[in-house]
Amino acid sequence: MSENEETPSTPNQVRRAKKKRSRFGKLSRLRWSIPGLIATVPSTVDRQSCERCREKNIRCSYQDRADGKSTPKAAHGGTQQATLLVSNPSSEATDSNINNSLSSHRAEQNTQLHWLNSPELPDAKHIKVLVDYYFQNFHPLRCFSFIHKPSFLQKLNDKLDSDLRNDALLHIMCTLGAQFFALEHSDTVQQLPTAFVLKAGSQWASRAERILLGNTNHISIDGLMTAQLLYDYALRMAKFTQAFILSALMSRMTQALQINLEYSSDLLDLSPDAKLSTTARECRRRLMWSCYVTDVLCSNGVEQLTLIFEKDLKIQLPCSDWNFLHERPCITRTLNGSPLDFIPRSTIPGDLDSNMGMLAYLIQQLEIRRRVLWYIKHLDQAKLPWLPDSEFAQLDRELQTWHASLPSNLQFTASAIYLRKESSQLGALCLFHCAYHQTMLDFYRIGTPELFKLRSPFHFPSERHNFQRHLQYALFKEARTLAAIIAEAEQHGPRMIGDTWLPTIAYESNRVMLFYLTQVTDPMAINKRELVLSTIPYLQSNLKALKAMRATNAMAESLSQGAESILQKLGVDSNNILPLPNVILDDPHLAFPSRDSQDGPGSQAADSDLHPLSIFRMARKEVPEGHVLVSSERRSPASADSVPQPIEQLPQIDEGIEGFGHNLDMFFAPELARDWQVSEMILESGADSNGLLSWLGMSQIGEYA
């Protein structure tokens, strides 16, 4: 005990002294229990901690200043360590300021994560850590689960002592694992700049690319896996031209490897002379389906860009993850719903769906999506959508049937969310449902041609305004559902929203909701106030998610800036996040039962049919040579005066709106709503790497669907 301290005499003083020493002990243990981090505490605690260091003959990392306070000294070879601020009312502001001011260089030095940016792979211990992060976070996403984890880890353990410099697959796996490793470190240990997280392991990806492209004369399954992972990494880094070229390379590699065909008719592995194991054959199937999904998302329903066609896929859908993990051979459906023709009927199980998992259902949904996008781009050849035998009605029934067929463990419910989180599949479940609702959003856009610049929009006569009104409300509801799904996933951590498609989905969700509130609904409607107030949390949650995605997706930076700028213009505070209302994630399926028959425009380049944020449009922006887009004449959609309003109208503005103040007038004042141009909701055809992705630029976009 210090000489200056008074010896406790009464029982109360003894208890207080014990409590004080206990508190000092906890803080001291906290300080030394976190390697590389120093907890800053009030000056009295600093002095106590220093005394304890002297008692234990341990070098203290603090030195007393003249004013009696403590400052951190250099540690670990002179590298100044970042401080971990113990939460207390006086330090919260300082904590925020310090975290926000960390530069990428300081983060690299202070957190001792500089090895993530080394040109060479790390040691065996760190390689195993990165591979584990790859399997936990990236492997379940989309259709990337084509590597059998136990088999891969066994082979990796056998070759860790050998030269790994030419192992392209391992290099890109470590890169993707490094991003999620740095992301979790930033989320749970010490905040890192998003640029540091995004670029973690980037040199390993560059080496994997050089190895792959330098060995195109040797095509292999591992090489195709590498190309698929490099494709996704290119999207993360906003290298759209590279991603577009890699997608074409992958298609040619699948043809050379012939993985679009079953390797053997012995699906149940009954023959003793099988050259490939059950696991190896399932890996080939999953890899082929992964390339198919890439082609669907890259081509966006444009025939000129399509390289993999469903009619050429003579393989069954992937089996469930449990069967794949435990190497159990089984029979599943093909893409058309039936088993393969050569399978003996006696071996076909009664319930084929029990052998399929999330991956198979996602592939089925994306096949429907491709036909939905083709339909949107050929409205001039389609029947009137309100007719019962129209293409619209048929696709609507297919989408409803697919969603109704989902087993309970694939639905977006509370139990399924926590079940998938436990198995590291919550991110996959989020993308699974976002893909479906994004398809529904694209499907219902035929009722809002002003926002989506459809090439051949339908004209809705006055007797069909009710049909168009339902389409517009369904579109709005899908956008809110997408926001709710992303918000739910984001609450469980930023790694749950790590798929490269999600930034575009979140951005599009906000664009649709804002257009509906400012252009479709009546500013004088009786329930406009309630509608706006209930929608603002969805807009804010999408923006919050976009900011969280910046660490794993370069495009999210521009998208978040664009989304934030438009919310600020509308007077919505993006920093004061309101609680998200409870939402029922049901589908606005409407069994919709004209347009005037006119000839559609002539042939156009593929990019004229695509959304500005599509991969091909973004890649074309990076190519200096090329033709200039020429917009064809478009039939005028229903005039603004004839657009039906989905809510009842009042002769005057609701008095409750006065509580909003002037900053939300854009949502309610009729004269301001008329001045709010549709072009405000349209983004440019690309984003500058150093600038803001504008929501303006209708004239530069041309038509897209």
UniProtKB/TrEMBL annotation:
Transmembrane segments: none annotated. Residues 132-403 form the Xylanolytic transcriptional activator regulatory domain. GO terms for biological process: DNA-templated transcription. Residues 1-22 are annotated as: Disordered. InterPro entries: TF_fung, XnlR_reg_dom. It is found in: Nucleus. Its main location: nucleus. Keywords: Metal-binding, Nucleus, Transcription, Transcription regulation. This is Transcription factor. PANTHER family: ZN(II)2CYS6 TRANSCRIPTION FACTOR (EUROFUNG), ZN(II)2CYS6 TRANSCRIPTION FACTOR (EUROFUNG)-RELATED.
